[in-house]
Amino acid sequence: MAPVPATAAAAAPAAVVSTHEIRRAQRADGPATVLAIGTANPETCVPQDEYADFYFRVTKSEHLPELKNKLRRICNKSGIEKRFMFVNDDVMEAHPEFADRHLTSLDARVEIVSKVVPELAAAASAKAIAEWGRPATDITHLIFSTYSGVKAPGGDRLLASLLGLRPTVSRTVLSLHGCYGGGRALQLAKELAENNRGARVLVACAESTLIAFYGPEVGCNDTIIGQALFGDGSGAVIVGADPVGAVERPLFEMAFASQATVPDSEGAITMQHKKGGMDYHIGGGVPEMLAGSIERCLVDAFGAIGVAARWRDLFWAVHPGGRRILDLIEEALGLDNGAMAASRQVLHEYGNMSGTTVIFVLNELRRRFVADGAEGADWGALMAFGPGVTVETILLRVGSGLKGN
Ligand SMILES: CC(C)(COP(=O)(O)OP(=O)(O)OC[C@H]1O[C@@H](n2cnc3c(N)ncnc32)[C@H](O)[C@@H]1OP(=O)(O)O)[C@@H](O)C(=O)NCCC(=O)NCCSC(=O)/C=C/c1ccc(O)cc1
């Protein structure tokens, strides 16, 4: 070890600063705040009323008409008008093995998604950064969430380089959180922003069904329901505390965040990468399970911050896991059926894009607030659900950037 020069010893601080004081100085003053939102989707758009024809054609499964009719029935009840996806005729011509999940195809799928998913995230992030108004190099932390990331270095590294983030950006990957990935990522962003003065956290969620796209099979209803509901997309959010006055626009303040696991629910939603793509199961009772759990999460969250909230007075950013989930949650909370209009709109326009969907809902809410001059609710709740069964709750307050528009 080199000897310590006398000058370095002489430069030691005269007064001893405690680590508590150092810690206090590192913390932000205000709450984490959503400062910008961007979204992106792949080019291929499939209308829901054409989906059964598309799916049975590209997977060469026309010999299974009963399953095709079942898919049609579910599509008709889904509340979805169209979806965007990377899977198209060209992909299936190049990779006919994707149609049969008993064939080995994971390597080829990972090869594709490890490029296109971060690129999609970059498209959404670039929109968020442009709206934010500061250079990409001012991003201090990156949280990348996807169920397609099974490789290292991962999509976070490619995303950071596509956006030109600084080499010291602090990267975190969330994988396989499924439909609660966006909620988890936003909660982590809140912790980072509030605990690191000046931090600006880019949350990027990107999902592609390509990793889980395969043909129908008699007896496997999970595949049919998945084919009726899921789509591809990316949502990006910039989160920071203490917004810089003239540049940054506070959209939603994040007042509180929590996670809960629904008891006895371990097998209700599952996802697992296998040789033929990502296998998944969506239990029949999931909408009822969520509707039965949601009020407890809200009571606990508002109780923790001492705010007396009436559900009817809130704005809602709920993950539209399926039309029935929204219906039952509205019923359980005694809400009008317009309360989840932003969630229903996103479901209608894009389907369930898993973890990224809740960011689209937040963007739609923002659009509605701007259009209405932020009339109405001041407090709101963002809720996302996924495997576990896990419920993410974030309490939001309309930011000053949305007031007076
Ligand atoms: C729109 C639905 C699908 C149907 O509407 P409905 O009002 O319930 O209508 P029905 O009661 O008439 O049901 C229509 C058909 O759907 C069937 N179905 C009804 N849920 C089911 C069911 N979980 N299973 C398999 N058949 C069912 C149901 O049996 C019935 O079949 P059939 O009698 O032959 O017409 C509705 O049930 C709904 O919104 N369900 C919520 C779906 C749900 O739980 N989503 C949350 C989980 S999301 C998730 O885990 C994501 C994983 C994921 C995985 C892969 C990815 O690429 C991306 C993500």
Automatic annotation (TrEMBL):
Residues 253-397 form the Chalcone/stilbene synthase C-terminal domain. Keywords: Acyltransferase, Transferase. It comes from the Eukaryota. The active site is at C179. Residues 21-243 form the Chalcone/stilbene synthase N-terminal domain. Pfam families: Chal_sti_synt_C, Chal_sti_synt_N. One of its GO terms (molecular function) is acyltransferase activity, transferring groups other than amino-acyl groups. InterPro entries: Chalcone/stilbene_synt_C (IPR012328), Chalcone/stilbene_synt_N (IPR001099), Polyketide_synthase_type-III (IPR011141), Thiolase-like (IPR016039). GO terms for biological process: pollen wall assembly; polyketide biosynthetic process. Belongs to the thiolase-like superfamily. Chalcone/stilbene synthases family. This is Chalcone synthase.
